[in-house]
Amino acid sequence: MAAEGKTKVKTRIRVGIGGWTFAPWRDNFYPADLAQARELEYASQHVTAIEINGTYYGTQKPSTFARWRDETPDNFMFSVKASRYATNRKVLADAGDSIAKFIDSGVSELGPKLGPILWELAPTKVFDPDDVNAFLGLLPDKVDGLQLRHVLEVRNESFMCPEYVALARKHKVATVFTDSPKFPSFADATGDFVYARLMGTKATLKAGYAPKALDTWADTTRAWAAGESPEALPYAGEPAKAGKPRDVFVFFISGAKERAPAAAMALLKRLAKD
I need a labelling partner for 195 at 20 to 30 A (CA). Which of 16, 26, 77, 234 fits? Predict the structure, then answer.
């Protein structure tokens, strides 16, 4: 997909939703006669990525990851939300066993469809440089020969500081950009890809976001893909200098969740014009 920055570049821009099983989607996204067992197959033909959230709550089997891989198109990609047992703890440095258990649970069965691993911290977790540094150092580079990419979602305002940004960049771990007033929302590029979780969908809007807002997100996504740091966004540290083209993952999460698929498809439609 081409993206416009200072120069025309080709990169991977992925846009999708969180999960694929949500009862209201059977009224406004999935065809009425679609068997529930085929929802992933259908969803993966209308968005280009899905964030797997069930892995946050419980361990999945390797055969389950393999089935998800086989039910989706060749060019599809999943991000995987890591186990809460690894992240919802007072001392992150003690998470080594939980991290290993999750990584070894079968995520490698997704093969080339394995995208970023999302590590979501608890809102009560305050930024502790030593603890966060130890935790990020525990995240493995590979599993079964597959290169892993990690992204951290921080939910405490204390992380909005230059010290955190520098630490995440040191470990080359991306940081979630969250479009929500409920959580820290800063767009510092700390890894070699961008990961956005947009939470502003509204039930009163057919596509979840107003047309002008979607136009703006399309422009922002193109800028991210071109290696830029859009000026209109908030930053906790010094914005990164323009760099190489990079992958971008945009997921419509939470908010009026019933509108998430429509929002994702509307953004994809805009990006398809590039």
Answer: 26
Question: What is the CATH number assigned to the segment(s) 2-271?
Answer: 3.20.20.410
67-91 residue pLDDT tens: 999 999 999 999 999 999 999 999 9
- Residue 273 contacts residue 41 (beta carbons within 8 Å): no
What would the DSSP string read from start to end of 132-192? Answer: HHHHHHHS-SEETTEEP-EEEE--SGGG-SHHHHHHHHHHT-EE-EEE-TTS-------SS
Q: Which helix (H) or strand (E) holds 252?
A: strand 247-252
The whole-angstrom distance between residue 103's C-alpha and the CA centroid of its chain comes to 17
Tokens 């969803």 correspond to 43
Query: With bands split at pLDDT 50, 70 and 90, how would you rate the model's confidence at 273?
Result: confident
> What are the residue boundaries of the structural domains of the chain, listed by start?
2-271
